[in-house]
Amino acid sequence: MRGVVLEQPGQPTRVEELDIAPPRAGEVLVRITASGVCHSDLHVRDGEWERPGPIVLGHEGAGVVEEVGPEVAGLSVGDEVVLSWYYPCLSCAACQSGRQWLCSQSGALEHRLADGTSRLRRPDGQEVLSYLAIGTMAERTVVPAAAAIRLPRGVPPEVAALIGCCVATGVGAVAKTAQLPPGASVAVFGLGGVGLSIVMGAVLAGAGRIVAVDRMPEKLERAAELGATAVVRATDRESTLREVRAAAGGEGPDYSFEAIGLPATIEQAIEVLPRGGTAVLVGLTPFGARASFEAFPFVDGSLRILGSNYGFAVAAVDFPRYAELHLAGRLPIERLVERTIGLDDV
């Protein structure tokens, strides 16, 4: 099969012919039908996140089960699935307490399957890893069965793929991390796939005011179409903060969400809050990046900062739920797709 391989961070990718072995116990072989290009892939490609190589990139994907390994229950050949980039072990303390996004025994961050190996090889026999153990920028992939979540019929592949990362991350940040109360005011800094998913999640939660912030007019327009009640084109820091506060009702939004992963916008998301407000940090920074805030008003105002990894996703529960919301017309995920390309165009 073919896959998009990164030899080492900071180098260009290339499409290669690879050998793929059959699934072993607890694994399934999936034919990929759609893969997103998430900024996390760019962090790796650009050398901002150190990762081993060679490695097949991609972690936002959907496909069809083509082969089921031994000891797999609940999945069959022909099932349409979305892939989770953080497969849980289901036995550690975090998993047993329902916090699978904090699993301490997953091999995903080692980019290997549960037995510590990969099913991919170059024709000369060299091992090739799969990014986060799913490597979705490829024609096929072997993944842990716990990473393949069956969806209801009728979900388009590109929608299913996005549920696996940006939608779960954004909608989950609102519904699960923040547990946004109805009527709350919201500001969203950054309107990529995750930021727009936060906007959709705020609409679902019944937010009173939703202020969308970005530098690009076309992203602001899309946010308004998805339910933002006000948009702010980001300029200098003070002007942006002033406009966001005004649009949120004067003193600032009850909740701010940062979906870029830049120190400057993280600091703005904290500074814009009124007394009692909450900042939810969703965007991932390059390694080593730091942000700061003034301590006195933070403590005096009883502010909160929440980190939200993967929207606190329990994939087996949340992915089908988001798919059902899409099928019911309440999560217009298809609006996130700006362009489709083939594997050779990556």
Your description of this structure?
The structure is a single chain. The longest helix is centred in the middle third of the chain and has 22 residues, at 157-178. The protein contains nine helices and 17 strands. The protein folds into two domains: 2-150, Alpha-Beta Complex (Quinone Oxidoreductase, Chain A, domain 1), CATH 3.90.180; 170-309, 3-Layer(aba) Sandwich (Rossmann fold). It is α/β, with parallel strands linked by helices and 346 residues long. Helices cover 27% and strands 22% of the residues. It has helices spanning 39-45, 93-96, 157-178, 193-205, 217-225, 237-248, 263-271, 295-300, 315-327, and strands at residues 2-6, 13-17, 19-20, 27-35, 55-56, 61-68, 80-83, 120-121, 127-130, 140-144, 148-150, 185-189, 209-214, 230-233, 255-258, 278-281, 304-307. The strands form three sheets. Strands 2-1-5-9-8-3 form a six-stranded mixed beta sheet, with no helix packed on it.
SS class:
alpha/beta
Strand content: 15-25%
- Give the mean pLDDT: 96
Task: Write the CATH architecture name of the largest domain.
Answer: Alpha-Beta Complex
Integer-rounded radius of gyration:
20 Å
Shape: globular
CATH topology of the largest domain: Quinone Oxidoreductase, Chain A, domain 1
Helix content: 25-40%
Could you tell me the number of beta strands?
A: 17
| Multimeric organization | single chain
- The SSE order reads EEEEHEEEHEEEEHEHEHEHEHEHEH
Provide a short characterization of the protein structure.
The protein is α/β, with parallel strands linked by helices and 346 residues long.
